[in-house]
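Researcher: Going back to the complex we discussed earlier. I've cleaned up the inputs and rechecked each line, so this should be the final set. Can you rerun the prediction on the complete assembly and write out the structure?
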Amino acid sequence: MTEAASPELAGELVDADQQSRRSIRLMAFFDRFGVLLLVLVMGALSYAAQPEVFLSSNNIANIFRQTAFLALLALGQFLVIVTAGIDLSVGSTLALAMMSAAVLSVAGVPWPILILTPFAVGTAVGLVNGLGLTKLHMPHPFIMTLGMLNIARGLTNLISGGVPISGLPAEVRWLGAGNLVLGGIEIPVSVIAVIVSFALAWLFLEHTRTGRHIYAIGGNPQAARVSGINVDRTLVIVYALCGLLAGFSGLLLAGRTGSGFPNAGIGAELDAISAVIIGGASFFGGRGTVLGVFAGVLVIGMMRNLLNLSNVQVFWQQVLIGVVIIAIVAFDVLRRRAAASS
Amino acid sequence: MMEAAAPLVIEARAIAKRFGHVTALRGVDLTLEPGEVLGVVGDNGAGKSTLMKVLSGLHQPSSGELLINGEAVRFGSPRDARQRGIEMVYQDLALAGNLRIDENILLGRERTRAIGPLRLVDHAANVALAKQHLDKLRIHVKSVSQRVEDLSGGQRQAVAIARATAFDAKVVIMDEPTAALAVREVRKVLDLIKDLKTHGIGVILISHRLDDIFYVCDRVMALFRGANFAEAPLGEVERDEVIGWIMGNKRQEDAPVGAGAN
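Model: Rerun complete. Updated structure for the full complex:
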């Protein structure tokens, strides 16, 4: 009896597969490349509006340079959002990391330590977020990181007296402001830093056990737990990495502006979240790619650039970014519905 | 009773479990032989799920003794139980829908390989392992790289069972594996359970559906208000009788168990 039953099982499972295969492929294509199409559309629009300026290497380098710090914030935010969490503190963490380096610089600390400081401060903030979330059994990361948003901003003002500090050593500024000449083309160091960070994040998420477990936790934390995955430990790692990247982001911004300023990164956590969502990650966790986040950052950067070049008022930029977030997610919902019903 | 002959893969003696003032289990006994399918029935709150959670290491018993292959054990976590070859298939399936079939089957036990100083997931090896295991159970999927959320309920259940049996499981505990399935898929999952027998895997099946119990089980036991109520090999008991057990009624005529049906 058991011998006879299973081949039938086989036949039916194959049938069901074939029906859904095409729509799954189409979905997978959009999941992976939809946001890249959006980047191309933005590029075409920009080119149509400002043909001489947009494609100039200066302008392109500017877009990348201006978005580098956002890219790192978004990358960290993405790791957290994959676990169905959120980190509201990244903007404040950026400021604290940046100001810590600036304050130490005034105190005459040598530059190698100054470069490491933002990473250490960011990681420390992230660790506190992760440990607080898991050990204090916070009902939602929103609360832990909302608290940290205030704590880190307050500390930033405390250590700096609330005033900007300029005059960072050139070595410290190099990562954020320097250029490398590769094959006759000047490439901002910050762009290389971003690309390397994204590549490492991709390797981590796609090809390490911890990376896969991060996706599993976002998909179904209960499944992860009963599979023997240490969910709490994984979450602490994720928040620590997010803090590390926020610190790195602070270092780049300090380099670009040549100073530390206590109001840096106010509201940046929302830009980071926007980039992640535009990049196709699900707010409910488990979904999204590093490449998508990169594209999401580019979309925001290009949109700002286009609006700047076209002399559109800053306030309108804000309105438009809001509209784009809603439009993209609405389109995504429609697409999924269509795919599900076909 | 057939205690003496085969070594018992699970023997639970007088398991009690209290949650504060609530007593969920009051001294329950349970035995399972290798390759046996045991059906566990009982009304809501009879203690079925609690008992299964004790067996799978999710809960620690307040008192009582648990023996695996004749050896006394204490499970601190599902991981301990799993190391002893006891796996649980959860009612809500406990699959990560966003991950591929092979990733779900190997979740938490992925094979890795060293590349320089890094330990990277060996996706090819995992896919091969998953395929091999699915073939062994004769579960056929178009591709193991499908995401689990794109599968039907029955297919998901098959993946969950494959996951539970992927690493030398001796016992698979299933809590209502057919409850969420379309009618035409129920039979396939039940046949898969029968297939596990041929691999020598014991199954404990909790189900409200007596059709399921009578289709796959060798023996059925009933819990009532956290205690053993009755049990019998499937050939020696009738459906109506089992329904009576669930509601707390032994047979009306006071005949000894097993005399009525054959």
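Model: Worth noting: Residues 1-15 of chain A have pLDDT under 50 and may be disordered.
Researcher: Good, that matches what I expected from the previous run.
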